[in-house]
Amino acid sequence: MEEESYDQGVDEVYLKIRDIESKQRILKERMNLIADNLIDFKEDNLKQSIQMKKDIEKLNQSMSRMVSFMESASSEFSNFAKREDVEILARQAKMFQPMNLVTFSDLEKLKKR
Prior knowledge:
Blueprint: H1 2-76, H2 83-95, H3 98-101, H4 104-112
């Protein structure tokens, strides 16, 4: 009787040890999966970060080119004629129309001379 209870106690200890080993194996597999996922997540974030840095650098270059263009264009604005100047020239052109000044009769008079 005592031997049976001893065997049952040993069997229970073995069962508990197997259960603990099984739980430990499951936990180890879960930890490995979490570690793999964490590594993948880190690699993806690193790739995205590198791509964002490249995109930001491209944007900075584009902005620099636009600023340079805007500066050169604004420096050229002073060379353009103002509206008032163009209007004055248009009025002067209307006042002096050489084709209307000379008539055919004037040309005939010139030919006769």
